């Protein structure tokens, strides 16, 4: 006869049955930008809150935090799930982050392979910091090329990794 304690232990050792479709049968998102935007829509509220808090931590003035998106009925947001280029700025130097920051393939077309690889391997916090600093520079100094040069030298207390992303963005920019 089998030991009853052994039977109880075996219950804890068993792996639970998988729920949903097997990973090998799941289709991959063919477009990483679409996947990032879908994720951004599903988690809009916590992402918006996290970006607003991060902007506050970095010392972004309240009158420059976030923007509105009338086309999509958003009165104000620090994180816009509808855009796909990582961030933007608007009237009055207002800055926002968007779903592009979630896309690991974002920098593959206009930047060097080294820049794209650094972006791909970076954590979300570093990407967000880099985009906030870049968009603040763009709002303050003008065109994208100037912001690429100025952003790595920002006085914002961004992480060292975010600063590395900005330096590599400047070096790896191919222009359009």
Write a structural description:
The chain has about 180 residues and is mostly helical. It has one domain (about 30-170). It contains 7 helices and 5 strands; from the N terminus they run αααβββββαααα. It has helices spanning about 5-15, 30-40, 45-60, 115-120, 125-140, 145-150, 160-170, and strands spanning about 65-70, 75, 80, 85-90, 95-100. The strands form 2 sheets. The protein has a 3-stranded mixed sheet. The protein has a two-stranded antiparallel sheet with strand order 1-2. The longest helix is centred in the C-terminal third of the chain and has 18 residues, at about 125-140. The mean pLDDT is about 90.
Structure keywords:
5 strands, 176 residues, three-stranded mixed β-sheet, mainly alpha
Short description, anyone?
The chain has 176 residues and is mainly α.
Low-confidence stretches: none
Assembly state of the chains shown: single chain
Distance between the termini: 76 Å
The strand line-up of the biggest sheet is 3-5-4
Helix content: 40-55%
Number of domains: 1
Shape: elongated
Structural class by secondary-structure content:
mainly alpha
The overall strand count is 5
Kindly provide the radius of gyration, computed on alpha-carbon positions and rounded to a whole number of angstroms. 21 Å
Q: Which helices and strands, and how do they pair?
A:
Layout lengths: L3 H10 L18 H11 L1 H15 L8 E3 L4 E4 L1 E2 L6 E3 L5 E4 L14 H9 L2 H18 L2 H7 L9 H13 L4
Parallel strand pairs: 3-5
Antiparallel strand pairs: 1-2, 4-5
């Amino acid at each position: 006869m089998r030991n009853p304690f052994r039977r109880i232990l075996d219950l804890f050792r068993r792996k639970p049955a998988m729920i949903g479709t097997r990973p090998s049968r799941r289709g991959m998102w063919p477009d990483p930008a679409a996947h990032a935007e879908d994720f951004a829509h599903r988690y809009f509220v916590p992402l918006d809150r996290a970006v607003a808090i991060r902007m506050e931590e970095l010392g972004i003035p309240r009158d420059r935090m976030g923007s509105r998106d009338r086309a999509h009925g958003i009165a104000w947001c620090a994180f816009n799930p509808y855009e796909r280029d990582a961030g933007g700025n608007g009237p009055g130097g207002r800055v926002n982050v968007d779903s592009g920051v979630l896309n690991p393939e974002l920098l593959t077309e206009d930047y060097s392979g080294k820049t794209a690889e650094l972006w791909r391997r970076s954590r979300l916090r570093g990407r967000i910091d880099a985009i906030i600093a870049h968009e603040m520079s763009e709002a303050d100094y003008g065109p994208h090329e100037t912001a690429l040069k100025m952003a790595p030298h920002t006085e914002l207390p961004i992480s060292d990794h975010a600063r590395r992303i900005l330096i590599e963005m400047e070096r790896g920019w191919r222009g359009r």
